[in-house]
Amino acid sequence: MGCRRDLGGVAGDLEWLGQVAVAKGRAERGVILAGAASQLRESLGVRITALDYPPNFWWQPELPRDAARRVLTEREIDTAWAQGRVMPLEEALVYARDVSTASTEAT
User: What ranges do the domains of the chain cover?
Assistant: First the structure.
């Protein structure tokens, strides 16, 4: 049970880093990370929606995708989301680590 809980935390971290990436102007990267988190949660049998949080809560799983709509088309968002959903966890963790290394980037 502890491992499952730890992986749930990893999913939350990936979603949070997705928000950070979008805020730093790296919308595609943010959506990819959110997609990876979504797949991880699904593999754990855990589904989290905005209804699980108060309306003014600082973090919600949908935020990277919603925020990316300001700069990406729906097709770009769907493509990035799908890319994240098939990304192996180890690769997603490496990909997430890069969020803090540059202030802006296209991906």
Answer: 2-100
